[in-house]
Amino acid sequence: MKKRGMRPVSEPQIREAVANFNFTGRLKDCRPFGSGHINDTYLLTFEMGDLGDRRVILQRMNREIFLKPVEVMENIAGVTAHLREKILENGGDPERETLNMIPAKDGKACYADSKGEYWRAYKFITDARCYDRVERPEDFYEAAVAFGNFQRLLADYPADTLHETIQGFHDTRARLEAFKQAVAQDIYGRAASAAREIEFILAHEETAGVLGELQEKGQLPLRVTHNDTKLNNILIDNTTRKGICVIDLDTVMPGLAVNDFGDAIRFGASTAAEDEKDLSRVSCSMELFEIYVKGFLRGCAGSLTQKEVELLPMGAKVMTYESGMRFLTDYLQGDHYFKIHRKEHNLDRARTQLKLVEDMEAKREIMEEIAGRYGNL
Ligand code: ADP
Ligand code: GN1
Ligand code: MG
What we know:
The chain is an alpha+beta fold. The chain has 13 helices and 11 strands.
């Protein structure tokens, strides 16, 4: 069977992309950058004579995942323009506090190369960085404020103008069906090596429907959300240590606030990395959970309903369960969605998520007590 997945980027392909953007200066360095699982990201450095060096982010968008890259870029153009206005109104600096696209030479938001792959470029945000794990709890707090704030600033964005860039992205019930199908087909003969994990997911089926049902009943509002709120999708300013810029806007779509909260928790409040092999090191830290609740509610500044606040712990559990299921589905289907760097990488990732679900279930009362305590700050 032909292996699906992204083809590696070749040097001529990068050169072609670079030549088709409006960059100024002499390219002096180009290197892979960041630790995202989806796109191919490069940091380019241009020499600008007396002006010194200027850096740029160049990305090949994942075409297996983003089937309509032009629509993704339309969303990003709209959202960043909206954010720019709000940031200016608040006396902020839009060059640092939101992504700034650099158009291709033909004026379009992305460049389609001769292989039919799409590239885009952003101004590099200097003096800030992303974290793959919480090094200081204060950073996690600031990330939470920034993600809450992001959602609040987009509260009046016309949601019906946004394209659905990945269909059913956080439709956990549909994810469960896709998972069951992957188990039934077992095309790579891997199901036996994940028997316990499969059993766990099936035994927790009811988790998949909880939020969707509440939304259908009108008890949870659809908002413009980020939908991929892990810690390395936010830049923390090196000096002020504030969460200055929310990045990775590919999945900004109508969604649930509690999912944005939950995705951040499953990644950042874990006591171990997302791909930790030693599961005894994996648990959900209640200290970090509390810090994030506090920061997120602060950023949302009263915009969440009481029901949403109450369901923050459930959002954490559902997003963790969904992530475990997605990693395991990808493992069963031959690892063509998430980038992997070792054999069974997606299986390891799935295991940490399911361990976290178990731990969150054990800590449910504490989590609910914390959410209740902070209420709408
Ligand atoms: P992916 O979808 O693959 O996760 P991201 O858009 O999150 O791709 O980018 C990958 C990484 O590149 C980020 O985690 C961050 O480290 C870095 N990055 C992306 N955009 C910028 C930017 N404008 N300025 C500085 N760093 C950036
Ligand atoms: C991907 O793009 P990145 O690496 O920030 C994924 C998220 C997952 C995450 C797991 C578009 O995020 O949904 O939660 O990996 N993004 C997409 O680490 O699928
Ligand atoms: Mg990312």
